[in-house]
Amino acid sequence: ENTIHIQELTVPFEQNIKASHDRKVNKYTALASDLSAAGITVTLNCFEVGSRGLITPENKNRLKTMFKITKSKLPKTLLKDISRIALLTSYAIWNARHEPTWGETDILL
Length: 109
Description:
This protein is α+β, with helices and mostly antiparallel strands and about 110 residues long. It has three helices and two strands; from the N terminus they run βαβαα.
């Protein structure tokens, strides 16, 4: 079976979630169309997690779809874990904003 699953994660500021989703869908539409024309089944799943950890109801559904594709169940703590990771990494980026290089940080552990 010729199938490709395109998964795209974006971590925008919360007020830009919808625009970011639309931009990512548009980015991959031509590729998905070309692959479909070549006889390949394509699923496109763009999902966003806000930089402060927000996961909208639409994105919860997109994550559930992703797990259905892999034939696995959505882990109970996944949404909470994703939110926490987004928040902590955004905080680490903010703290490093004046650093000339990126190094290891304890905040991510």
